[in-house]
Amino acid sequence: MFVNSSQGNIDYGFDRDSQVSTGSSLQSWVSWFCSLSGHEYYAEVSDDFMDDDFNLTGLSALVPYYNEALDMILDIEYEDDDINDYDDEEEGEGETSSIFGDHIDNSSNNNNNKGIGLGDSGSRDNQQEQDDGFWKEQPLTKRRAHVDPSVVEPYAVMLYGLIHQRFLLTRNGLRLMAERYASGEFGFCPRTYCGKCPVIPTGRYDEPGRENVKLYCPCCMDLYNPPFIYQNVDGAHFGTTYSHLMFQTYSELTPLAQRHIYQPKIFGFRINERSRTGPRMQWLRMRPPEYTENSDTGDADDDLDDDELEDDLEDMNQIYEDDIEEAKDQVVESTTNV
């Protein structure tokens, strides 16, 4: 039913058989949309939020057929009889305006004829009548013609996604997503040493149509691709802000990082960090002791004791300091050459 979006490679297509007519059912468009397969990440935005024009500021310039798309989201439907009545009223007003226009023209001509014999006073009266704004006919504004719902619905999805992005930044939106995150509705981190930490959907861009949604893990602070069924969900429908704002608001939901970092070994011997095939940049996953906890995941042979962990920290700090000194030397050489 839907066509591909013109703003990127996000496909807003749905299966026609899975759709339910909102006109013949008590289910609202928002509830129907969120109940579709692959849309489990979405939250239902309240009508009160969408009825407030302040919350929709600027969206009319981003979404084509904005008024029609908003009416579809809010389940505002125009019957064919209403459209015909509107057209009949428009034709009647047109005939009435033409009659009054002829009457005004005749009266103005009579006044002009009378003003010829009255001198300057008649011309001044005629001038006032011509300059009076109430006598000028304003052109009638015609409503946009009826648009096929199959054309409007992809833009309704885009509009709802942008409204959804703004709703998640509100107090109610953050609380709703925090409850869903705590219950593990969005899945768990695929990294072994995160210990099945819950993840939360987020996007890397705020502009629609650029990239699909990603899953953010607050334990390892990294992004992961969602299952295939969610690949067509636009990441802009969640935005780049709300997930991190949620953990700032509900700090008790922020998990403690795991102390264990995978160490590649050959015949039981750990590969040196300076080796070509050795582990690099492991210090990025390290946290201070007060923000870490012991992990019970993994094999006992793979876990590091405190002494080995301290040795690794010292080695990585030394490597980090060496890299900084090397970078400083390169900067000094470049400045001296200039």
TrEMBL record:
Region (Disordered): 84-141, 280-315
Gene3D superfamilies membership: 2.20.25.20, protein kinase ck2 holoenzyme, chain C, domain 1
GO MF term set: kinase activity; protein kinase regulator activity
Keyword flag Plastid: no
Record-level GO BP terms: regulation of transcription by RNA polymerase III
Keyword Protein transport listed: no
Assigned protein family: Belongs to the casein kinase 2 subunit beta family.
Protein name: Casein kinase II subunit beta
